[in-house]
Structures are given as structure tokens and as C-alpha cells.
């Protein structure tokens, strides 16, 4: 029997670590850091409009520091896929939704914001300006942020975040199993010095040596003889007022007006510069400090997954953590999660529709008043006592 290549790939893949909170005793698998004594607490909760269990932030304006260890592994010569779900039940306004992948040397008891990690990945939201997916790699002891602005989701629904790193120094970021960013690690992060630098021995030539002017004034153009006209002239239609007394008021002068024949400052017309050489570009040379590295993607040791973050308003649920060496494995699991997310979206809409119907029903339930124009007739036909009786009846109806 011939086995499909996709099935062979799945059979050969390895789940490096997984946590969906379907097994009891999550408290024994996850360690609360004691580096500080005022960290926020996580609690096990189910999602809003779904039954997905996960770790939920429970206290506002808190730092959180919780982690779980796993069997140490290296991703050298292997694909690494990191995937998890995030649901911001609180419609988050400022806070992190990312995970950190630590080496096994980091202790869960002492994990904190300055603990060195290998990779940080996931959504981060703060106000209107920051709604991005962090993809940060530690390279030779320094954290490097991605140069792209990769947008994250900021609604109240569950979303899947996936990072794929491959041995050819390539990466992909997926949201809800759809690619949102991809490329080469060397190009989208500043891990290495630039391959080329400006030649320090070169300098911009003088204009006589390198003319950058696309156009120049026409040397053969001359100013017309009748060009020079004053900008303002005496108003030819003005007349001295009849009551003007030159002995008392002085010599009368007509007011000045704009000269319709004034042409402004003369300038010769432009022509193409016959000496134009184009914009000068500083020549580059190979950077002597650059050295390629085909192992940027690789880490010798992964051993702990941590939720080390800050939230102004609590209510985020983290779940369905997966680390594997197979994109197919992660994609298959994401496809199953998407089914739950479709049901979640339908449940959210049903709830919103029910609330809208209930709000509209309040108006429908109000009794209509038993008065109309025909019954009331012309109000001018009523005296004050009759009008008072009518108003009393209207109040009773209300």
C-alpha cells in the first residue's frame, strides 16, 4: 500500500511540548515565579463563548510570571514551530499576549523580565498605536526585534498565533492558520552587520566634476526690452477730491494700484543640462566586519515556556500551546481549533442578537396610548377643565 507523503511527514514529526489543559494538575506543571512577591495570579478558566480551557490573567495592573519546563531539545537542523491561542476576553487596551521560550538553565522560581530567553513571540497591544506581533530572537546575547510591523488581532475572540523557523534561516508568522509575514531572518532582523558599507575613501566630487543638476538656466536666453515695468503705478482713474486744499493738505498724489503690465522678476528659461551625470551615489565596498551565519535560526537548548508579561486590564486566556518540528502537525491542529473558533463566533453573534432583540422588545412591550387625533378632535373646542381631565387620562396611560 502506498502511503501519502503528507501522512509520512506527520508520522515522522515530533511534538516537542504540548499543553491544552485537558489533563488535571496544571498547578504542578506550571511554576509561579517568586522573583517578586506581587505578581498577578493565573487561574484555570474556559473561554468566552467556547469551552477552551486555559490560563487566565485574573488581576488588573499586574506583572505576570508563570512558566512550565519541558524536556530539553535543540532545533539545530530542524524546523521549529511554536503555536498557541490567545483570547482577550476583556477587550484588552494595554497588555501582552506573548510567550517566551527559555533555555533550561532558567529557573521557574526565579524567572523574571530580565531572564535571558531564546525567542519571544505573540501579540502585544497598548492603545491605538501598538497592535503588533512581537517576534524577537536572542542572537549572541542580544535581543533583536523584527523590522516589520506585523499586526495582531485586538477583538474578544480566540486567535491562533504560529511561528515557523526553518534551517534555511527563513521564518513565517501565521494568524488563524493564515500567513501574515514571512522572509529571511538575515533580511528582517539586524542580526549581522551590513554586507556592504559606503566606501570611506570615496567622497562626493565637486559640481565641476559631477554635475547633478538636471536643468540649468538657458545661457542664450535674454530679457525682453519691454520687460521692466514697475510693480505699482498711480491710479489713472483717481481724481483729486473737490474739497482737497493743497495749501492745507499739501500736494495731492493719486493712490497707487497694481500695475497690470508688471511681469515680475525676469528669469531665463530652463533647459536640460548637457553636463548632467545623474545623482551621485556613494560607492560601496564589502563590509570587512560582515560574516555570514547559516545558524541564526538555531538554539542549542530549549527547556522552558513562560508567560512573562504585564496587563493593565486582566482577562486574557492562553491555551493550546504546541511546539513541534512539523508545520503539517501544527496546521492540522490549527484546523481543528478553527472549527471551535467558528462555533465561538456564532455563539458570540447569537448572544449579541439576543441582547439586541431584548433591547428592542422593551419598546415593543410598551402599551400604545388610547388617544389619536380623530378622538381628541380640535383642542380649541375644550375648556380648561376638560383639558385638565384629558391630561389626567394621558398621565394614567403613561
From TrEMBL:
Residues 220-235, 345-356 have a biased composition (Basic and acidic residues). It comes from Oikopleura dioica. This is Calreticulin. Keywords: Calcium, Chaperone, Disulfide bond, Endoplasmic reticulum, Lectin, Metal-binding, Repeat, Signal, Zinc. Belongs to the calreticulin family. An alpha-D-glucoside binds at residues 98, 100, 117, 124, 308. Pfam families: Calreticulin (PF00262). GO terms for molecular function: calcium ion binding; carbohydrate binding; unfolded protein binding. It is found in: Cell surface; Cytoplasmic vesicle, Secretory vesicle, Cortical granule; Endoplasmic reticulum lumen.
Amino acid at each position: 500500500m502506498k502511503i501519502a507523503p503528507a501522512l509520512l511527514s506527520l508520522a515522522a514529526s515530533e511534538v516537542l511540548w504540548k499543553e491544552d489543559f485537558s489533563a488535571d494538575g496544571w498547578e504542578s506543571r506550571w511554576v509561579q515565579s517568586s522573583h517578586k512577591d506581587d505578581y498577578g495570579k493565573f487561574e484555570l478558566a474556559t473561554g468566552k463563548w467556547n469551552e477552551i480551557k486555559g490560563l487566565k490573567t485574573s488581576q488588573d495592573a499586574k506583572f505576570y510570571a508563570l512558566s512550565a519546563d519541558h524536556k530539553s531539545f535543540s532545533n539545530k537542523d530542524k524546523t521549529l514551530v511554536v503555536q498557541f491561542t490567545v483570547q482577550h476576553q476583556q477587550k484588552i487596551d494595554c497588555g501582552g499576549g506573548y510567550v517566551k521560550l527559555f533555555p533550561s538553565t532558567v529557573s521557574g522560581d526565579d524567572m523574571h523580565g530580565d531572564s535571558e530567553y531564546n525567542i519571544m513571540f505573540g501579540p502585544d497591544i497598548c492603545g491605538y498605536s501598538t497592535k503588533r506581533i512581537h517576534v524577537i530572537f536572542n542572537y549572541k546575547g542580544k535581543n533583536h526585534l523584527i523590522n516589520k510591523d506585523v499586526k495582531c488581532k485586538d477583538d474578544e475572540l480566540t486567535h491562533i498565533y504560529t511561528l515557523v523557523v526553518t534551517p534555511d534561516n527563513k521564518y513565517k508568522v501565521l494568524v488563524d492558520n493564515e500567513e501574515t509575514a514571512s522572509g529571511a531572518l538575515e533580511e528582517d532582523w539586524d542580526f549581522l552587520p551590513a554586507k556592504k558599507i559606503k566606501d570611506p575613501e570615496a567622497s562626493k566630487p565637486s559640481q565641476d566634476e559631477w554635475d547633478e543638476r538636471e536643468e540649468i538656466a538657458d545661457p542664450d536666453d535674454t530679457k525682453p526690452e519691454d520687460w521692466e515695468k514697475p510693480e505699482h503705478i498711480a491710479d489713472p482713474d483717481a481724481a483729486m477730491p473737490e474739497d482737497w486744499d493743497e495749501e492745507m493738505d499739501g500736494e495731492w498724489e493719486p493712490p497707487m494700484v497694481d500695475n497690470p503690465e508688471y511681469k515680475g522678476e525676469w528669469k531665463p528659461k530652463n533647459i536640460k543640462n548637457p553636463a548632467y551625470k545623474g545623482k551621485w551615489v556613494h560607492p560601496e565596498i564589502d563590509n570587512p566586519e560582515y560574516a555570514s551565519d547559516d545558524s541564526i535560526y538555531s538554539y542549542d537548548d530549549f527547556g522552558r515556556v513562560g508567560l512573562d508579561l504585564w496587563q493593565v486590564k486582566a482577562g486574557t486566556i492562553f491555551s493550546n500551546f504546541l511546539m513541534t518540528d512539523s508545520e503539517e502537525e501544527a496546521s492540522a491542529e490549527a484546523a481543528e481549533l478553527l472549527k471551535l473558533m467558528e462555533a465561538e463566533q456564532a455563539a458570540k453573534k447569537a448572544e449579541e442578537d439576543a441582547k439586541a432583540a431584548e433591547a428592542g422588545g422593551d419598546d415593543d412591550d410598551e402599551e400604545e396610548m388610547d388617544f389619536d387625533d380623530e378622538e381628541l378632535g380640535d383642542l380649541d373646542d375644550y375648556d380648561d377643565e376638560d383639558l385638565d381631565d384629558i391630561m389626567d387620562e394621558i398621565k394614567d396611560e403613561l
